[in-house]
Amino acid sequence: MHSNHLLLEEPIRMASILEPSKSSFFPAMTKIVGTLGPKSRSVEVISGCLKAGMSVARFDFSLGDADYHQETLENLKASIKTTKKLCAVMLDTAGPELQVVNKSEQPISLKADATVTLTPDEGQEASSDVFPINFGGLSKAVKKGDTIFIGQYLFTGSETTSVWLEVDEVKGDDVVCVVKNSATLTGSLFTLHASQIHIDLPTLSDKDKEVISTWGAQNKIDFLSLSFTRHAEDVREAREFLSKLGDLGQTQIFAKIESVEGLTHFDEILQEADGIILSRGNLGIDLPPEKVFLFQKAAVHKCNMAGKPAVVTRVVDSMTDNLRPTRAEATDVANAVLDGTDAILLGAETLRGLYPIETISTVGRICAEAEKVFNQDLYFKKTVKFVGEPMTHLESIASSAVRAAIKVKASVIICFTSSGRAARLIAKYRPTMPVLSVVIPRLKTNQLKWSFTGAFEARQSLIVRGLFPMLADPRHPAESTNASNESVLKVALDHGKASGVVKSHDRVVICQKVGDASVVKIIELED
């Protein structure tokens, strides 16, 4: 047996743990999605977030109206211009989210063993005895003994800011519950989650449709995060709705799995969606704590094998109020990377947290360290085995490019692509070096005007681990003569040099189309 095989499985040298982390142009291969909100919507803070490593900005429509989000988006555009860092836009629907409305915004204290009534009568004031909710069908959905959680934004692990109720009796439309823990709820809206109970509401509400067709269409969103996806049909309906909205036909749909229902239909949902968001906040309530990690590992593995991005949420909750994550959180981020996650989604941590920029850079540093010990060799073999034979033409080119890059210790893989598919397939094999996807714009016309495609494809790779897009000059088509490809390649290499990824005497693997053939070539850079 070769001695090389043991290198991967050897314990990490203790000395290497003490070496300071090196910073590089690409802070980490794993991407970071940041939610923009009250604490992170100024040009100054957004610029800081982009520099720290955020590559997708999430707009959560559970809070704030279209004008509020438009103002934030204009600030994002200004920040992209000044920092020269690309950033994609994700619209997160409210979905069938149950909420308690606290009009007075006064803190509400609840004591263990007291009772509280949930009522659909929204005219009532919220108090420690009555919670008005935005759904009339709760009394029909629950029974005595069921569990209901209520908290601000999402439930944290600390049960002083969220409350756990047990249904005691159903009186007409009202549900009377016993409070299981003492807590103080603050804010104007509390999310309500009934554990393992089917809520009979559409996944895309009328309000969501209105937001998508106005704000979403006007701003050509890159991603739609479909909250509370429960069936593959939910994704199909959303896709059909988007296809009628002009450019939004190109928007990618990420199914957000946040209940046992979504979990049961996971395989069918994965087939239909462009990517998956594992919403561990709500899932952590539907599943017993000892099962959460199992779901994460299984779901991420399935996404990896399908070549679709997997996004993990709720990783550093404590950084909402603190400058440092807990030990468990730091380990959790690293484990998500080792499991194969493409991106980490930060919610409350950047939305209303005190340290949005520090949170992004801390998560980025942990991801970068974890990537150094990711077992690429084992992962590559597993993926090739899973894909099986005969491989499709593109898949075999992509896996060969990655294998070649690792064998020659290339510093970067450059992929010319117009649809982005080839670059995503290369990233699926998780190369240890960054993949520069040079997106070649395509000219299209509707007989009235010319337009270029390519910007969507470039931005959509900002959520894929290891993929770093750049838009090529539209005068260079992807499949054309060698000469024009050489000039695009020069631009890509200059970009690589400027960002410190490539230096002289490095080897670079290039994947491109020449005529009808796909070619993988290895070049060595001169001085």
Automatic annotation (TrEMBL):
It catalyses: pyruvate + ATP = phosphoenolpyruvate + ADP + H(+). GO terms for molecular function: ATP binding; kinase activity; magnesium ion binding; potassium ion binding; pyruvate kinase activity. Keywords: ATP-binding, Glycolysis, Kinase, Magnesium, Metal-binding, Nucleotide-binding, Pyruvate, Transferase. The keyword Metal-binding applies. It is an enzyme of class 2 (transferase). Residues 395-515 form the Pyruvate kinase C-terminal domain. Transmembrane segments: none annotated. Its cofactor is K(+). Its EC number is 2.7.1.40. Residues 30-360 form the Pyruvate kinase barrel domain. Pathway: Carbohydrate degradation; glycolysis; pyruvate from D-glyceraldehyde 3-phosphate: step 5/5. NCBIfam families: pyruv_kin. Belongs to the pyruvate kinase family. This is Pyruvate kinase. It comes from Nicotiana attenuata (Coyote tobacco). The lineage of its organism: Eukaryota, Viridiplantae, Streptophyta, Embryophyta, Tracheophyta.
